[in-house]
Each structure stands twice: as structure tokens, then as C-alpha cells.
Specification:
Helix content: 40-55%
Family: Belongs to the dsrC/tusE family.
Number of helices: 5
Strand order of the largest sheet: 1-2
InterPro entries: DsrC-like_C, DsrC-like_dom_sf, DsrC-like_N, DsrC/TusE
Subcellular location: Cytoplasm
Number of domains: 1
GO molecular function: sulfur carrier activity; transferase activity
Protein name: Sulfurtransferase
Strand content: under 5%
Length: 108
């Protein structure tokens, strides 16, 4: 992927290969490729995911993601239906991709 004249290394599914290449501006570009416009609610999840990854060195699948969101943002946001509205399809996969993190291991 070319971003600001830089060639970024992505895997075959569009995940960043070098996590240090990630920036908030790149997140916006990755989201746009997925037909998403990032809102403050998206950013809450993206920042939570990046913090989770720093702590555990793994991108969470759905169940641990819901648990982390519930713990950090409250039970009203810690629901899979809420995450599906923000990140359609597979919230853990799509959110991790936009957050510049590896694909969650348990997600197909």
C-alpha cells in the first residue's frame, strides 16, 4: 500500500507487517479502504486494542475483546452487537487491521 509516497508492507489480507508504521492518519486511510469513517467511538476501541496489544502482545478475538471493552468502557459498550455496528463483519479482525495490529489468532 502506498501512503504519503511511502510504500507500506501489508500482508495478503491488508494487515500491517511493521507495527511501527502505524499512525492515526494511516488508521483513517485503512478505515477508508473498508468504507468506514472513524468516529470517537471507533477511536475508543482502536486505542483500547493498541493498549491491549502492548500489554499482552496479541490481538484479542471477540470474547477477550468484549471483556476488555466491558472492563475499560463499561457494560453498554462491552457487547458484541455494539462492536458489530462499529466494525461490521468481524469486529476483532477489522478493528485490529485499522489499529495496525496483527490479525487475531482465533479469527478465520
Amino acid at each position: 500500500m502506498t501512503y504519503h509516497s511511502d510504500q507500506l508492507a501489508l500482508d495478503e489480507e491488508g494487515y500491517l507487517l511493521n507495527l511501527d508504521d502505524w499512525t492515526p492518519e494511516l488508521a483513517e486511510a485503512l478505515a477508508a479502504k473498508e468504507d468506514l469513517t472513524l468516529s470517537s467511538e471507533h477511536w475508543e476501541i482502536i486505542h483500547l486494542l493498541r493498549h491491549f496489544y502492548q500489554q499482552f502482545e496479541v490481538s484479542p478475538a471477540m470474547r477477550p475483546l468484549v471483556k476488555a471493552v466491558t472492563k475499560e468502557l463499561g457494560p453498554e459498550k462491552g457487547k458484541s452487537i455494539y462492536l458489530m455496528k462499529l466494525f461490521p463483519g468481524s469486529p476483532p479482525k477489522l478493528a485490529a487491521k485499522i489499529a495496525g495490529l496483527p490479525k487475531p489468532a482465533n479469527c478465520l
